[in-house]
Design goal:
Helix 4 packs parallel to helix 8 (164-181). The protein has 27 helices and 16 strands. Among the domains are: 310-511, Rossmann fold (3-Layer(aba) Sandwich), CATH 3.40.50; 521-709, 2-Layer Sandwich (Alpha-Beta Plaits), CATH 3.30.70. Strands 9, 10, 11, 12, 13, 14, 15 and 16 form an eight-stranded mixed sheet that branches. Strands 6-5-4-3-7-8 form a six-stranded parallel sheet, with helices on both faces. The protein is globular, with a radius of gyration of 27 Å. It is an alpha/beta fold and 710 residues long.
């Protein structure tokens, strides 16, 4: 594992579809068909490159083979860095393939174990470690799981013969496992592994991990002895020490109660660190948050020193469309806009950006951040053909080339919706929501809040998905950075508001325009599909009890004030729709909890009734159903939500990337409102990345998260 990240990563981040490729017309998308069986079993890899016009596997497969051709140490470090930056999906792809190719390699096995742990396969993660440790697990009666004992670990010859760094890395995995399982045995195992490693390698990182784990298990004396031992390893104040060593020394001083000395070492570490390499800084900061949550007194001054990189969500006007009757963004102010964007990015230490890629402000932002060495994540609002036609082409071939370069050089490219545009501007608003939520998720991983930078025109009204619309919906004004085009173009000091009809872009002519003109309203909705596992296995003699079960379920659900737009049932299935992700999240989790409790009260059933629940958000058509004469919802995103439910694990709530992005964006706004009112806000949800799974009935693949109560 990368030494500077040893034992530090504590959270998961979001992952988007990665762009790569030599030609500007190719979007490469790696997707992994992860089954609901244990992940250590063989699963079929389905790598597909999504081109504008066709499919091609060669390029992405070639990139993967290049990764697998590296040494085991290089593969392990690559996987560790991908996990540290929150790119769980790519880490899983590489780790699984590498383990299948080299199942006997200890380095790769432990790296794969860490990936499995981070993607929620806790038991499977542990199973990969037992052969390495040469210890047989026993059944734990309290948990019902097979686990190794502390005594068996201490008797393992691997603690004396294994490489100290591998022993420490396995200790890290058990430490991370404890964060998910809260099994004290995982914590004890991690402590003993780090102690064994420290006795042999005398490294500051293993020493401090052993010290903190001793403190967590209640052995304060041993914790302080280890901290003192770490301080003796280097000269006073860590002269000529590396960043990670200085961080370890600072933590040792913290554990011994010397806050001022600790902060001095944190300052020295930041001076010695290349600020463009933010992974280690974030890792050290995450460690302090972890210790604070565990009950240790962490000074705010230390967190203020370890400044994470700033995440910027960007929105801005395009270069004037030929159909505009009033100029908002003339091409001749492009250089001024780029200069101001660059200055603002530098002022807030921006290293990570989320943006669309329209001609004009978006592409200027992308180019400016890339020139500063930053990471750019592009989110497109609908099918790429329509996007180019409506948002790039009108500015000419030069901007099309810049658009192609932006995608080719971006860290990632994803689609909030891969459907056709069909003239519905609300898709831009939905994309903004997804972009905001993705940045919030990344911010949680980096322990920071995202900023919004907007190139807008102060004399224009809000249009769906436009800069003013995004600004109006941004709840934290302290993280808002505005660049007013009016100040760059208004030479005569005009103050009158610009009529939006003068700046409405002519809709691109589509081959099915006659149908578009008759199309029903298209809106953003969050939806839930659920069915009852075991319903189809019930026999006639179970029907009376099942009807009683449904009656009690209905009584319990009626007590929930869900404020849904629609709820439909048929048989054992439920389809619910709401205007926010939080409403559907609450409804789905409560529904799951009620069924988990209620299903155990009917011993006459062949097995307990349990639910499978899937959640998704996206643009849908709303219209009156001609048969039932009630409002109903239609479209591909209804089908996507429905196709996720059959592959959801029994008793679990699975949510798509789009749903989770909206959920994080909504809860971020809630949190800001509470803070502004001086109230304490408590996070209600936990979202853990599962991976990319194949949807039912060959409906494609989808990035999926576990949704749970926090």
């Amino acid at each position: 594992m990368a030494k500077e990240n040893d034992g530090r990563t504590t959270d998961k981040g979001d992952e988007t579809t990665t762009i790569s490729g030599e030609t500007s017309n190719t979007i490469t998308k790696a997707t992994d068909n992860i089954s609901t069986k244990p992940m250590v079993e063989d699963t079929n890899q389905n790598l597909k490159n999504v081109k504008l016009e066709d499919l091609d596997d060669e390029e992405n497969e070639e990139t993967l083979q290049q990764d697998l051709a590296k040494s085991s140490d290089e593969i392990e470090e690559q996987i560790t860095n991908l996990i540290a930056t929150g790119h769980m999906f790519k880490a899983h792809v590489i780790a699984k393939k590498a383990f299948q190719k080299h199942p006997e390699n200890v380095n790769i096995a432990q790296a794969y174990s860490l990936v499995l742990l981070k993607t929620g396969a806790l038991e499977e993660s542990r199973k990969l470690l037992y052969p390495i440790l040469n210890v047989n697990p026993v059944l734990d009666e309290a948990t019902g799981e097979e686990m190794i004992t502390v005594d068996s670990l201490l008797n393992s010859p691997f603690l004396q013969t294994g490489r100290p760094d591998i022993i420490a890395n396995i200790g890290h995995i058990f430490k991370e496992s404890w964060k998910y399982s809260r099994h004290c045995r995982d914590l004890e195992l991690a402590k003993e592994l780090y102690l064994a490693s420290f006795k042999r390698d005398q490294k500051t990182s293993t020493g401090m991990n052993a010290a903190w784990l001793s403190w967590l298990t209640g052995d304060d004396d041993q914790a302080k002895q280890l901290a003192a031992a770490v301080l003796r390893l280097l000269p006073p104040y860590g002269l000529e020490a590396s960043f990670s060593e200085l961080i370890d020394l600072a933590e040792a001083q913290l554990l011994l109660g010397r806050e001022d000395d600790a902060c001095k070492l944190y300052e020295d570490a930041m001076k010695a660190k290349d600020q463009t390499d933010y992974i280690s800084i974030v890792s050290a900061r995450q460690q302090l948050y972890f210790l604070r949550e565990a009950g240790f007194k962490v000074p705010n001054a230390a967190l203020d020193i370890l400044v994470p990189p700033t995440i910027v969500v960007f929105t801005g006007h395009s270069i004037d469309h030929p159909s505009f009757q009033v100029s908002l963004f003339p091409p001749d102010i492009e250089a001024d806009v780029k200069r101001i964007i660059t200055e603002k990015l530098q002022a807030i230490n921006a290293k990570i950006g989320y943006s669309s890629a329209s001609c004009g402000a978006d592409i200027i932002f992308i180019e400016a951040l890339q020139e500063l060495g930053g990471e750019v994540n592009i989110v497109l609002p609908f099918a790429i053909q329509d996007f180019v036609e409506n948002n790039v082409r009108h500015a000419g071939p030069r901007w099309e080339k810049r658009f192609e370069r932006a995608l080719a050089n971006a860290h990632s490219v994803s689609f909030s919706c891969e459907d056709r545009y069909l003239g519905h501007d609300m898709l831009y608003r939905f994309s903004n929501h997804v972009m905001h939520g993705s940045a919030v998720m990344r911010g949680k991983f980096l322990t920071t809040d995202p900023h919004l930078m907007a190139v807008w025109h102060s004399r224009t009204d809000s249009l769906p998905g436009g800069p003013a619309d995004f600004i109006d919906r941004w709840s934290n004004i302290s993280t808002l950075h505005l660049i007013d085009l009016d100040e760059l173009t208004n030479e005569n000091g005009a103050t009158e508001q610009i009529d939006t009809n003068l700046i409405k872009q002519q809709k691109t002519s589509l081959s099915f325009d006659p149908f578009v003109s008759k199309s029903p309203e298209r809106v953003i909705k969050s939806m839930m599909f659920s069915d009852l596992h075991g319903y189809s296995k019930l026999q006639d003699e179970h029907v009376p009890s099942f009807l009683d079960f449904l009656e009690k379920l209905n009584q319990a659900m009626e007590k929930i004030d869900a404020d849904l737009d629609s709820v439909n049932t048929w048989g054992d299935a439920i389809f619910a729709v709401a205007d926010t992700a939080t409403k559907i999240a609450d409804f789905g989790l409560r529904y799951c909890d009620i069924i988990e409790s209620l299903g155990k009260k009917y011993p006459e059933f062949p097995f307990p009734i349990r639910a499978r629940i899937s959640l998704h958000s996206g643009p849908v058509f709303v219209a009156q159903d001609p048969f039932i004469k009630k409002v109903n919802f239609y479209g591909g995103h209804i089908n996507r939500a429905a196709r996720l439910e059959p592959v959801t694990a029994v008793g679990q709530v699975y949510a798509t990337q789009q749903f989770v992005s909206l959920l994080h964006g909504e809860t971020s706004d809630e949190r800001n409102e509470y803070i502004q009112k001086g109230l304490k806000y408590y996070d209600r949800y936990s979202t853990e990345y599962v991976g990319v799974i194949a949807l039912a009935k060959s409906f494609g693949q989808q990035e999926v998260y576990h949704l749970r109560w926090r």
